[in-house]
Amino acid sequence: MKRSEINKALKEMEAMIRSCRFELPPFCGFTPEEWQEKGHEYDEVRDNMLGWDITDYGLGRFNEMGFSLITLRNGNVKLPKYTKTYAEKLLFLRPGQASPMHFHWNKMEDIINRGGGNVLIQVYNSDEQGGFADTPVEVHCDGRAFTVQAGERVRLCPGESITIYPYMYHDFTLEEGTGPVLLGEVSMCNDDENDNRFYEEMPRFPAIEEDEKPYRLLCTEYPEAR
């Protein structure tokens, strides 16, 4: 991705968050220059990849396949000194964007529509070879359990949520004509480097072409503590 695309995406997500009256923690507002001065007091942010995360999955089609995220809190499955067993994210999709089909080997998560339009989540069970199983999917949405067919899309209107279990394939698309969506994610510890199984192999984090100065640093870009 070009840095200019990332900067634009960051500012669009900030505007959506403001419109939903959601407040971010202070570290989300640090400039790249401010990060150069931060010491070990912010090791939890660095070590647990808190903060901004913009991805096009290495495909170069951010307006079609990709979206913007912020990890607000997280533990760490590799560093026992971080004892949080949970994580929280915000995700932002604008019309035309989608996320690729994937599952998590370990993480269970709730995806919550925090505001905006409607999001559609297509679901499959995984078979033993990591493909799509042609079996009904048991779905849990806001205390209601029901069954949908393999590949069916579950609609989440603002305020609604779905629980995604390990080995449950899922993606995100927007319902046409309903506008951009701010999603929340509440989950077990998040490990984006090791716990994503994409149906079509692709990188989780993008390569960046530096065509302008960064507006914010991404969670993969923090400098070492001073």
- Characterize the overall form: globular
Oligomer status: single chain
Terminus-to-terminus distance: 29 Å
> How many β-strands, per DSSP?
13
Number of helices: 3
Outline of the structure:
With 226 residues, the chain is mainly beta. It is built from 3 helices and 13 strands, in the order H-H-H-E-E-E-E-E-E-E-E-E-E-E-E-E.
Could you explain how this protein is built, in words?
This protein has helices at residues 3-19, 32-35, 43-47; strands spanning 51-55, 67-73, 86-93, 98-104, 109-116, 119-125, 137-141, 144-148, 153-156, 161-164, 168-174, 181-188, 196-198. The chain is mainly beta. It has one domain (1-196): Jelly Rolls (Sandwich), CATH 2.60.120. The strands form three sheets. A six-stranded antiparallel β-sheet has the order 1-2-3-12-5-10, covered by helices on one side. A five-stranded antiparallel β-sheet has the order 9-6-11-4-13, with no helix packed on it. A two-stranded antiparallel ribbon has the order 7-8. A hairpin with a 2-residue loop joins strand 7 and strand 8 (144-148). It is globular. The two termini are 29 Å apart. The mean pLDDT is 97.
